[in-house]
Amino acid sequence: MIKKEIFMNLTYEEKKQALIDIFGQIKDEEIDFDDVIFLLNASSKIKDDTLNQIYNNLFDLLQNAKNISQKIYLGKLKNIEKKIQEDVEKDSKEADSLLNNI
What we know:
mainly alpha; 4 helices
C-alpha cells in the first residue's frame, strides 16, 4: 500500500488503477472482489472523493488486520519463549539433581 498522502495526489486514473491493483492482491476465502474491480474498471462516474474514501477505508482495514496479525504473532512468540524457559528450568533441575546424586 502506498501512503495516504501519496494516494491523494495521484490523478483520477492512477487512483482507480491503484485501487484495482490493491483489490486484485487481496485474497480472501469469503469475499470476492471481482465485482469491485469490474466497477472500478468500467466506471468513469465514480467521484474522486469516493475513490479517496475507498482508499482510506481500505488502508485502515488492512492496517487493523496487520496489527491484529502482529499481536497474534507476538503472542505465539511469547508462548514459544515461555516453553523454552520451562524446558531450560526443567533441564537445570535435572542437572542439579544428577549432580547432587553424584
